[in-house]
Each structure stands twice: as C-alpha cells, then as structure tokens.
Amino acid sequence: MPRGVLPTAEQVAEVKTKFLQKLESEPPADAFLPEDLKRITDSDLWITKLLEAFDLDVEKTLTKLWENLAWRQSYGVYNINESNVNQEYLREGSIYAHNKDKDGKPLLIISIKKHSKSKNTDDLLRLVVYWIERIHRENNLEKITIFMDMTGSGLGNMDIDFIKNIVNLFETKYPYVPNYILVHELPFLLNAAFKLVKTFLPAKAVEILRVTTKKDVTEYVDKDNCLALWGGNDEYEYKFV
Predict the structure, then answer these.
(1) In sequence order, which residues have a C-beta less than 8 Å from that of residue 30 and are 6 or more positions away?
(2) 9-25 and 45-53 helices cross at what angle (nearest 10)?
(3) 103 and 159 inside one domain
(4) What's the burial of 75, exposed, middle or buried (CB within 10 Å: 0-12/13-18/19+)?
(5) CATH number of 172's domain
C-alpha cells in the first residue's frame, strides 16, 4: 500500500541529536529503559518510523519519542512475559499473533466472538502489548496488520470502549506499527455500532481500514495464510506456545 514520504538522513540525525542533547540537559526523573536508548543510539530505524508516522515533523517526533520512552519505562514493556499476563486471556485465544498478510506483515488477530464487556480492559491491553513486543523482538519493529475477526460475533461481544482503547494504544504508543486494520465478517447486526466506531478513528486509521468478507479477504491475506474459519486453507487452531 502507498506510504508517506521517507525521512531524510538529516531529519533522522536532527531528531537523534536533539534527543540526546535533551537527555543530557534534562534527564527524566525515572531513567529511560537501556534497551530503548540502545535502540536510538545503535540504529536509525525507530526514529525513521516515528518521523514517517508524524509526517516528517521533527519537533513532534521528538516530543512523541520522549513521551513514548516515559510510557515504556512506566509500563515496563520488557518485563511483560507469558507468566505475568492474564493466563485465562492468554490461553483462550481472544488475542494472538499468527501468519502474515500479503505484504509479509504479521497478523495480530483479535477474536471479537470471544470478547465480553465483563473482561478486564487493562489486562486485555497488556496482552496486546505483550504480542506487539514479542512480534517486534522477532521481526525488528515490523509493521503489524490488526485483524479484527468478527466471525460469529453478536451484540453481546461488541464493546465500543474496548475497540477505542485498542485504537488509542496504537495511535499513541505504537503509531508506526499498523499496516492495515482489517475488520472481517462484520455481522449485519453490528453495522450501526461499527459506523460509530469509525467516527472516533484517527484519519490515518481510516485510510488503512478495510472491511473484508470470505469473498475478498484474499486481497489482503493469501489463502494459505487465511484460517479455514475465514474461508482459507489454514486449519490452525490457537494453542498458546
């Protein structure tokens, strides 16, 4: 899919230099994570992706990078692992990573049929962060396609606040990550609710949002990477590994 203009080496260097100067002159009260600082000093990839996400605006990128580092430190992103996320949610497979889209980007699958409003939103979001960070350790800050699988879901599964929270997580904490947002097999009953969801999506999310059915999902995920449930060839059933 078409992407924005790539940042220049000068823009990347400007963000990096200004960041390191600020770090020296105004260090944060809680030190940023060494793994994150290494990501900035040893590579241009993260800053490049952030500059793309913020339309090459150097000052905005600098501000957002600082905010992001503070959040990652307070959230303890590198300490989240399979032993300290909600075990029930981890094992039921309402959120998991499996296969790739046609661009070769990993799929983060959110099974709406398995969702209910009684679930703890903070635990669910922590699980989303777990999967993003796990994918990024394996694929070096790769973009991810968020696959909202609505197959078999009903009004009882629709939770506007939960979807808002996921969108907000990507918009504020991982703005460089989404490749596509695929909403698959949206039931007719949920059309009105989904129209409401679209009204609070940021413009960049609307640009990459696609509603798919069994007939056209292969435009974005080829048949071998599509679960049998979606009309594809993959007989995989989630089991946590």
Answers:
(1) 70, 73, 74
(2) 100
(3) yes
(4) middle
(5) 3.40.525.10
The pTM of the whole model exceeds 0.90? yes
* Radius of gyration, CA atoms only, the chain: 19
Asked if residues 126 and 160 have their Cβ atoms less than 8 Å apart, the reply is no
Which DSSP string corresponds to 93-136? TSEEEEEE-TTSPEEEEEEGGG--TTS-HHHHHHHHHHHHHHHH
Among 34, 55, 79, residue at a domain's last position: 79
- Six token digits for residue 236: 């995989």
Number of structural domains the chain divides into: 2
Q: Assign 193 a pLDDT band (cuts: 50, 70, 90).
A: confident
Domain that holds residue 215: 87-230
- 198 and 219 share one domain: yes
β-strand partners of 148: 110, 183
Write down the mean pLDDT value for the chain. 95
Query: What pLDDT, on a 0 to 100 scale, did the predictor assign at position 4?
Result: 63
Joined together, the tokens standing for residue 14 give: 């400007």
Indicate the residue among 55, 79, 103 that finishes a domain: 79
Instruction: Reduce the DSSP state of residue 166 to 3 states and report it.
Output: helix
Tell me if 2 is assigned to some domain: no
3-state class of 32 per DSSP? coil
Residue 238: inside a domain: no
CB 210 within 8 Å of CB 179: no
185 in helix, strand or coil?
Answer: coil
Residue 3: predicted pLDDT: 57
